Structure formats: structure tokens, C-alpha cells
Amino acid sequence: xxxxxxxxxxxxxxxxxxxxxxxxxxxxxxxxxxxxxxxxxxxxxxxxxxxxxxxxxxxxxxxxxxxxxxxxxxxxxxxxxxxxxxxxxxxxxxxxxxxxxxxxxxxxxxxxxxxxxxxxxxxxxxxxxxxxxxxxxxxxxxxxxxxxxxxxxxxxxxxxxxxxxxxxxxxxxxxxxxxxxxxxxxxxxxxxxxxxxxxxxxxxxxxxxxxxxxxxxxxxxxxxxxxxxxxxxxxxxxxxxxxxxxxxxxxxxxxxxxxxxxxxxxxxxxxxxxxxxxxxxxxxxxxxxxxxxxxxxxxxxxxxxxxxxxxxxxxxxxxxxxxxxxxxxxxxxxxxxxxxxxxxxxxxxxxxxxxxxxxxxxxxxxxxxxxxxxxxxxxxxxxxxxxxxxxxxxxxxxxxxxxxxxxxxxxxxxxxxxxxxxxxxxxxxxxxxxxxxxxxxxxxxxxxxxxxxxxxxxxxxxxxxxxxxxxxxxxxxxxxxxxxxxxxxxxxxxxxxxxx
Length: 500
Hints:
This protein has helices spanning 2-45, 56-67, 88-100, 103-128, 132-148, 163-176, 184-198, 204-218, 220-244, 248-258, 264-277, 284-293, 299-320, 330-348, 356-373, 385-400, 412-416, 426-434, 441-448, 462-470; strands spanning 405-406, 452-455, 471-476, 495-499. With 500 residues, it is mainly α. It folds into 2 domains: 2-45 and 84-380, no CATH class; 385-499, no CATH class. Helix 5 packs antiparallel against helix 14 and helix 6 (163-176) runs antiparallel to helix 7 (184-198). The longest helix is centred in the first third of the chain and has 44 residues, at 2-45. The N and C termini lie far apart (104 Å).
């Protein structure tokens, strides 16, 4: 009789194990679906020979300047202003540009950064779970949230912008300090990554400060070492940059940015945007407090929960400044899924008087519902055939022009097609306006020696007015030569003017 009961229990356990495996396999497939869509979109548009977002060309042109020996952070040149970021991303583009400076190479840098970042976050979730199946599924769902956020952050992961590189460096450095034993190599690696992050985008300071504080509290000797080495390398690089640029580095990267106004209403808008996409983000702080009070919060979950809290000012402050866009919400939206899964795993690892499989797999089911509620449309991310053909025709058209070309919205367009005349980007003109200064684009044009100007007919700004007074309309670009950006500010050019 006992043997029969034992055999019955064994069969029941085997059946439950089979159901769990099937459920896990189906869940993993479902979680991988949005990830696959985003990867498809990245690959499909990597080679698009034009700006997907209007500031991509500005980033590319800065690398072009570095490769051609032109100053990046000059204060004495009234005809030039850089994007208000430290130089790490630009230097990476310039390094890759020694092979080939083009959009696809710049996007490849962002795609690789994004892929490594996701691998680190997925691994953090995986190694915290008690079973390989649960860890795999939980890690995939953590990354599915990252994928579903792709349209929310303006399709930014693969663009030629600083954000993906900054997130990789912050996340990479943070993942190193959670180890119980901090070797000298690990301390040095974390410090290098944190320093590079600070020299990629200023808001990384929130992540670096938290990671150093966490390490000091949990491993005082190693934490002090990471903090001192990071600070020493950062100050040394700042001093060198100040010397090399004649004081221009600090002005453009710190002073210039600090003078831009923050709209407090946009702080609320940014937070609302995040919570509308991921309402469960609001549960992260109280859940971490409850788990901590019950001594159920793991060191790994505590570290990444703190990183999520650090991501709040890192996201909302740049989003709320004048000219801020959805890409600035990337830190919160990248971390919200992985941190939620880490806390859910800590919750499941405790004994709650209910079957472990219920507590363990219920959050997975919830994430499955989340993915279903946030479908992705790959066609909205990829430039259509018309746009590809238009980009090819426009590049050929610009390449055949003689005498230098200026296109304020698309700074890399002339340089990509062989025009060596100096250039600028319209975004820096807006940045000057936001900080209370001005840049006279008409005067800047006179210093370029260019013969042609590509403008947008619907634009009636000061530069366009100057062009219409002092230039002759040479050609209205036909529709099959007009390229439309697919994210960010919708910009285009449709008129070619020749200087009299």
C-alpha cells in the first residue's frame, strides 16, 4: 500500500516537472519574441545611409572632425559648437572611423554595446535563480521588458548616440562590484569602466556614485579602492582634457549644460511615461524594503535596486531639461525589468506556505501578460524601400555638387559625400538658445566657403531667411529624393540654394 502511494506521488511529481518544463519552454519562446523583433529592426536598418534620427549625423560629424584634426571643444571658434557630452563616444567613433566612418559602423558600436549590456543583465538574473530553467526564462523576460521599451525610448538602442555605450559601461562596472571577493584586476576593471562612463555621458555619475557607495558599505577596502582609483583617473583625464582644449572641455561639458533650464512639469511627464509603460516600477522600492526588513533581500538584488533608484535622476533630469527627449528615459526603462525579476526571485526563494512553483512562476506569467500588452510593430522601426531609394539618390546628388555644401539638420551628409568645408549642426544652435546664448548661422556659413545650402522649405528660421535673401533657389528636390527621419525630431531637406 505504501509502495502504491509512493509510486503515485512519484508520478504526480514527474507530471508536475513535465508541466513546468513545457510551461518554461513556452514562456521562453514568448519572452524571446520581442527581443527577436528588436534585433531584426536593428539589423534591417543598420546600413541605412542617412540619419535615422536627425542628431546621428551630428555625432558622426564630430568623429569626422577628430579624424581630420579639427578641434572638438574649441571656445575661440564662433563657427563651431559640439554636442554637450564628454568625448568617449566620439573617440570610439573616430577609432572605428579609421576603418570606415559611416552610419553602419556607428550603429554597430551601439548594437554591440546594447547586446553586451543585455547579456550582463540577463546573466545577473540567471545566476540568482535556483534552477537553470527558471533563470533562463526569468532572464529572457527581464530582457523582453527592455525590448518592449524600444519605441518608448524613441528606438534609441542602436542609434549613433551616446546612450547605449553609457549604459553598457555603467552596467558593466556595476556587475563587477557585486562579487564577494574583489581582486585587484576586478577593482581596476570596474574603475576603468566607471571612468569611461563618466566620460561618455554626465548622468552616469549617479550610477557610479551608488556603485561606489554600495561597495564601500559591503566591502570597505575594495569599495574605497574602486572609489579612489575611479576618482583619480577621472580627475587626471579632466585635467588633461582641460589642458588639451585650452579650457574648452569644462565649458562645453559642464558649464554649458548647467546653464540649461529644467522644466519641472517635464519631471512629472517623464515619470508618468515610465509608469504608464511599466506600472510595476512603482512596486520596486516598497518590495525591496519589505524583503530587506525580512532579511530576504540578496546583495545582488540590493545593488541593482539601488541602481534603479539612481536611474531615476539619471533619466528625469536630462529629460526635463530644454531639448530633452525620450532617449533620456533609457536608464529607468532598461533596469526596470531586470530589477523586478531579481526582486521576484528573492521573493520566490523564501518560504511562504504555498508551493514553490507557484511563487516562482507567477511573476513569469505576469511578465508574459506584459509582453502581450506591449506588442512591437517592426515595420514602424525600419525605413521603407522608398526611404532607402531616396537616401541613395540624395547621397549621389550631394556627391555630385561642386563647391562645398551645408545642411544644418544633417551635418554628416556633406562630409560623407566628399565635401570638406567646415560644418555645424542645428541642435547646437538650439542648445545655445536654451542656455540663453545665440549662434549666428549666417555668419557661420560665411566662414565655410560653401557654395550650396540644403534647407527645409517649411522652415522659416533666421538661417533660412538669410539663405532666401542671399542665395538663388537652384532646385526643389523631388519627392523621390526627400528622406524622412523615422524617430526624434522629424527633419528633412527639400530645397537646394546656390550662393550668389
